Amino acid sequence: MSMRSAVPRGDVVDDPSKRGNTPSADAVRLSRGPAAHQHGHAYEPQSTNNMHNAVASWFLGPQGESKERLKDLFEKIVESTAAGRLAYHEEDGAFVSTDMMQSQQFSEESQRLEHLLKNFTDLLNKYSVPFFSQRYAGHMCFETSLPAILGYLSTIMTNPNNVAFEASPFTTIVEITVGQQLCEMLGYSCKVGEEFCKLQGHFPDLCDDGRTCAKCTQIGVSAEERDESAWGHITCDGSVANTESMWVARNLKFYPLSLRLAMEKDKLLGSAAAGLKLPTCENPEKPVLFTSLNAWQLLNLRTNVILDLSTLLNTQCGISPEYSEQAMKKYLVQEMGKDALMAEFTATFKTEPLKQPQYLISATRHYSWPKAAALTGIGAMNLVSIPVDVHARLKIDVLRKQLQQRFDDKVPVYAVVAVIGTTEEGAVDPLDEVLKLKDEFQAKGMSFVVHADAAWGGYFASMIREPPAPPQPPVGHLPVGLPDPHRGPIDPVPEFSMRKHTELQFRALARTDSITIDPHKSGYIPYPAGGLCYKDGRMRQLVTWSAPYLSMGSQTESIGVFGVEGSKPGAAAAAVFLHHQMVGLHKRGHGALLGEVMWTSSRMSAHWATLSDETTEFTVVPFNEVDANQMRIIRDKIIGKDNATVLKDKEACEALRELGSDLNINAFGCNFRVGGITNSDVEEANILGSCIYKALSIADEPRDVKEVPMFLSSSTFKMDEYGECAEALKKRMGLETASGQDVFVLRNVAMSPFQSSGGFVEEIARIFRVAVEKLLPPFIKRNTIKALQHNFVVQGTAETGKTIHLVYLPNFYDANCRYQLILSVDVLQVKPGAQIPPDERITGIPTMCSIEDTTIKDIVSGEKLRAVVTKSSTSHREDVILGNVRVVKNRSLSSAHRDLAYPEYIHSYLYGTLEEPYMDHAIVRAPNWQLTATKPVELDLEKPLTVEQLKEGVIVKFVTVPERAYQPLGEAAFRKMFRVGEFWDVEVYKDPNPATAHRSGLLDMRKAVLITKGKLASTQWPWVWEGLNAAREPWVKGKLIERPRTLTELLHVLPPVKEPPEPTARRGGAMPVARKMPMGRVEHTTTNSHSKLFGRSRQETWADVISRVASM
């Protein structure tokens, strides 16, 4: 029975009668409080099904249910360790006597250790992320299995170092065995010839060549591949495994060049090897002289041919492997370095300079790949990202074009990397199509390695492997002696088989050259335990570095000579081994466990798809799109239904199978509605997502984990990496796409086999919904347009009959205030206003103007305005009437209208009159500072500006003052930029945009008209307002943060402005005596019903925790 057509296995029965009155409607379920799952046997009745019971036996349990069994097993480890020590020359006698153990010092130290352990474990349990819990749905983490824990703990009692066989004879054998287990699970063969066919379930009907069976030929397995023997080993993590694979691919690519160079330089080797023949990449059936190959052909020999070179030198030319190794050593890339080898080859053979080979890899690559490129000398610039489609899978058509371009340009390719389980989205790249491209381009004459980064997804291969026959230990390998892990007939459990696309890719793993796999991810093994497998085990010889002492006295392979690491714990290999032996790497073992979590992932995906609707003030949009028919089935047949009911419904099961990602990660975006209209501002949606993440994690500040009701993780889909994939998600979220902003997403990863028990996925959905609803109000409030008080800095003297300029104090994160607004207004009337209470009088502020109970739209309409003016150190405010409102600049500061990069140089708007020209910094990106000249600037221009030009406002570019290099601005940069009285070189341009232009690119001066050049000096420190950045995230450490809105609130956070004597402006003058730069920092805390989110206690800082650890 195929995995695709297999009926999903049963489930823990969710019987509402055993859990109280629990309605089936999702909306009602979500309203239940957490008490429904707090006490007693919340998830009963437990399954009577053999498979799920077996899965449960592999873990301690979310509530420590198996603690007595684990304590008993821990005791057995201690007893066994003590017995083993006693058995080694018992005649030596005891060295720690009874008298010593009864001494006061021994007792005190024992008590101190117990006290220290208690303090340590208390802090550990308080601040560690509860991976073990069904409430944890964040990263690719769950509790490690009991066999793995026991394997690790029992082994660290002897602390073997797997760097050398003499330091780890037993655990070296264990690691070699584990490597073979991983290889075979992934589809590689550790057998050769007929044994390979038997392992694959092929009938050994040999073809004409006498070596390959008909089935092997049908699936594209060559005779050489059939006779390869795979090899794998444990690394500390996937990053090191990826680095090693890149190291191997680099050395493999340059090995033929090294041999050709050695033959030219070493005349003995050259003459002896003159007759060496081998097949070319494009014609594998017709050997040619090795010396006849050009550089391109040498750089594109097939992998098996390169690995055969040493053997061919021996069999064809009689050259011993020892001599060829000695003759080649100084020409290897390991010795010379890549660039030196290429240069030497070019100089020796008078060829055109060789082009740098490149890696081609999916844009969803792990961050370890650029690191590996840097470490191996390949360089991150030679790591070419291939765009992904809307499913976050590598685009094959683009890969083909990139390969063809490199073939045409004669740019060698080290490798193509496909990701089998992206860590952000759970996507599986089309590996089968990548391998077809490899065949296609090898036929043209270009060869490369295909590597599968299955660090996350590798263990899902167990879902397509049949249980093996009862094991017969191979000669020279660990005789395990454990029973076959079969568990009788397949019982119905809540388990899914793979989708067709996913299964195809896992079956294609067998044809890759190397695979990264992490047991400490989907293998449920303690850290550190990564892994790397080679289809042809000879590849490991390409990174062999032997230290003489490593092999002294050893008759068995020391695996420490291969790869990046030196010393490595044997305990990691032991943990992996015990888990493999206990659980089994097949569909009735580890595959069943992962099948259960895929079921849970799909059920969780159904909740993300239906958690919001047209009536909710928030929206949840799954990354993996759900169509209308699927939505109907989810609402009618899945939400509110227990697993047993869903399993009986074929249509529901088929719909559920197609939900979510290729594996078990659900990514989704969150947004909100204001007055029924979906928010279109990408930044606001991103901030909401960030606040949700911080509320459901401990990333931001130390929190007792009990205060976090559930855990999620997050990611950012960057446009330069995700392209159309991120754009499609933003469209479905209702967000604008023109600005090209990145989009923030939340993730849940299903790793627990217990989350689907008793419908707990619905409890997770309920918790999430409550969290979002608590966070929403400030987002809705600040994005609701309404009449309120607006505040301005006054440029000029606010006296009757005068014309003044008003510079608005904006805020990026309030839709009412997202404007850079400069107005010219006439003062029609001034009269004394209200008295300012003594405690509200502030000195050193600029003249402020406040206009109450209105909107920006009404302000710029030109009607008369009633305003209040407040001056520094005055006892009364002034009531004024303003008229003849003229807009100098009205520029939107919404994220859709801001630039993605800061301008290269500082730009400012220059406006006013010939007698009083003023300046305000042009703001085009956040975060930023508003830099406003409250007094006229001094100009020395080649051509004076006209009255009309200043009235409209021009753009000044400070040609020697960089902005991009200084941003985000700090005090040191500010002092560097603006020195009072010093003239700066400027260019003055006509503003190419209308005064009310609302778009990005406002400072693109390439088509702007240059009016004049000259110099400009500030006669006073510009007034600095940082409040435009205030309250970006309205929730900070559980408290509501809002920007100050009223003038009274504003006056308590305004920066002081010191009024220096007006200096005489001069060119190149030294800066006057340094004065404290005014900093307008604003963080206004409002204590209200939301001030403690999720009932947090008094906040600690991480410094407090560090101090507590240090004081133990």
TrEMBL record:
CC cofactor: pyridoxal 5'-phosphate
Molecular function terms from GO: carbon-carbon lyase activity; pyridoxal phosphate binding; transferase activity
InterPro entries membership: GrpII_AminoAcid_Decarb, PyrdxlP-dep_de-COase, PyrdxlP-dep_Trfase, PyrdxlP-dep_Trfase_major
Lyase listed as a keyword: yes
Gene Ontology BP terms: carboxylic acid metabolic process
Modified residues (N6-(pyridoxal phosphate)lysine): 521
Spans annotated as Disordered: 1-48
Pfam families linked: Pyridoxal_deC (PF00282)
UniProt keyword annotations, A-Z: Lyase, Pyridoxal phosphate, Transferase
Keyword field contains Nucleotide-binding: no
Gene3D superfamilies: Type I PLP-dependent aspartate aminotransferase-like (Major domain) (3.40.640.10)
PANTHER family: PTHR42735, PYRIDOXAL PHOSPHATE-DEPENDENT DECARBOXYLASE FAMILY PROTEIN
Descriptive protein name: PLP-dependent transferase
Lineage: Eukaryota, Fungi, Dikarya, Basidiomycota, Agaricomycotina
